[in-house]
Design a protein that fits this description.
Layout (H helix, E strand, L loop, with lengths): L16 H12 L8 H11 L5 E5 L5 H9 L5 E6 L2 H10 L6 E5 L11 E6 L14 H4 E12 L8 E2 L2 E2 L1 H7 L4 E9 L2 E8 L3
Parallel strand pairs: 1-2, 1-4, 2-3, 4-5
Antiparallel strand pairs: 5-9, 6-7, 8-9
């Protein structure tokens, strides 16, 4: 979820048709929080490494899921989970006729019912990102599976900081014992944590 993420697409050209469709739906509904184009391109690249299953939480109107579907191999199953009923319905309509893509109206924890995943994208304003209720990569990822946690801001300190305080959410993933993780700046104000589940 990126503040003004949908607006960032106004200057973009050459978007994949499915992504452009999702952006148009988000704009029509006044939804400002789509993933940024930089994040979308990363998701498209990572989706190409999945062989069986991908999930995204906080799907919104489907912009991130559209990037994932654009990059995924044929036959890979994709699940988007959105807790808002209207957004879930709007996103589901975008993917009608696209094999293997489903949008569920549910809390983010519904992803546990369909895993494990080759690629899991945690989005949606912090759901599953931090604290005792954080997603469990050992249950949700295949060995070697990739976790993406987005919407951080770049930090040159350790521990990383946000608004002058230690960023506990980011530290949680960078120090997670089940992951090999790295914080990757994607732009001047956007950073993403990518973790790979360690072998069993």
């Amino acid at each position: 979820m990126s503040l003004f993420g949908t607006d960032a697409y106004r200057s973009e050209t050459g978007l994949p048709p499915l992504v452009a469709h999702a952006v148009a739906v988000a704009e029509r509904h006044g939804f400002a929080f789509s993933c940024l184009p930089e994040q979308g391109r990363l998701l498209r690249a990572l989706a190409g490494g999945a062989t069986r299953r991908i999930a995204e939480t906080g799907t919104g109107y489907g912009v991130g899921l559209a990037w994932l579907a654009t990059g995924a191999r044929p036959g890979v199953e994709m699940i988007g989970v959105e807790r808002d009923e209207h957004r879930a319905r709007g996103a589901a309509e975008i993917f009608v006729g696209i094999p293997g893509v489903r949008v569920l109206h549910a809390d983010w924890t519904e992803v546990y019912a369909y895993g494990p995943y080759d690629l899991l994208v945690l989005d949606g304003g912090g759901q599953g990102k931090n604290g005792e209720a954080a997603a469990d990569p050992e249950r949700l990822l295949t060995p070697g599976g990739v976790l993406v946690v987005d919407d951080f801001t770049p930090s040159a300190t350790w521990p990383p900081e946000h608004l002058g305080r230690p960023d506990s959410a980011r530290v949680h993933w960078l120090d997670h014992p089940a992951l090999r993780a790295v914080d990757i700046p994607l732009s001047g104000d956007l950073s993403t944590v990518i973790g790979v589940r360690r072998p069993l």
